[in-house]
Specification:
Layout: E1 4-6, E2 14-16, H1 18-24, H2 29-35, H3 50-80, H4 89-96, H5 114-142, H6 147-167
Antiparallel strand pairs: 1-2
Helix pairs in contact: 3-4, 3-5, 5-6
Length: 184
């Protein structure tokens, strides 16, 4: 899925060629329809620094965790039911789970009800928001062309978490600022 270019030197710099990634892995119409849209309209850099690649790998790990959780949750909520939750809860969770992935790890989520699912979804979402704020901050120094792309991810993650808080009856925005996770 990724195309790598290795530069010379004792410790070679590793770059990811985004144009090859986008050309090789376009989103299929079904994914775009289910997720509610396609890739952001932004210019992708031709190369990313070695540190940027590590940051993107971390973001991909977190995305794999989230999509795995929401895919399992979507199936389970159908069994558990949505009593007390909005009728479109399953549809919204399915949209979040629609992102195509590289093969994820195997996860086991300790949830046995729709309520427990949304509680854990909020925790996972909040951690993802903090990690994405830190990611954006670190990439602003090493790979500034990626900050706009990461910002578009941050806004979507925040909307997801707002939904999870709302369906639980919590205040959608618990604080005026989110805290970034700086060192991961």
């Amino acid at each position: 899925m990724f195309s790598f270019k290795i530069a010379g030197g004792i410790l070679p710099s590793l770059y990811i060629a985004f144009s090859a990634l986008v050309d090789a892995a376009p989103l299929c119409p079904k994914t775009i329809n289910t997720a509610g849209g396609g890739l952001p309209n932004t210019t992708l850099p031709a190369a990313v620094s070695e540190g940027g690649i590590k940051e993107i790998q971390l973001a991909q790990f977190l995305e794999n965790l989230e999509v795995s959780f929401f895919t399992a949750g979507s199936a389970n909520i159908t069994k558990w039911g949505t009593n007390g939750y909005s009728n479109d809860s399953i549809e919204i969770v399915s949209k979040i789970a629609a992102v195509p992935l590289i093969p994820p790890c195997n996860y086991s989520f300790p949830v046995a009800s729709t309520k427990e699912f949304f509680q854990l979804a909020h925790l996972i979402g909040s951690a993802g928001i903090g990690a994405t704020i830190g990611l954006s901050d670190r990439l602003a120094t090493t790979d500034p062309m990626l900050t706009r792309l990461v910002s578009s991810i941050l806004t979507v993650e925040s909307r997801h978490d707002t939904f999870f808080r709302h369906v639980q009856g919590d205040v959608p925005n618990p604080a005026p600022f989110d805290t970034g996770i700086n060192d991961i």
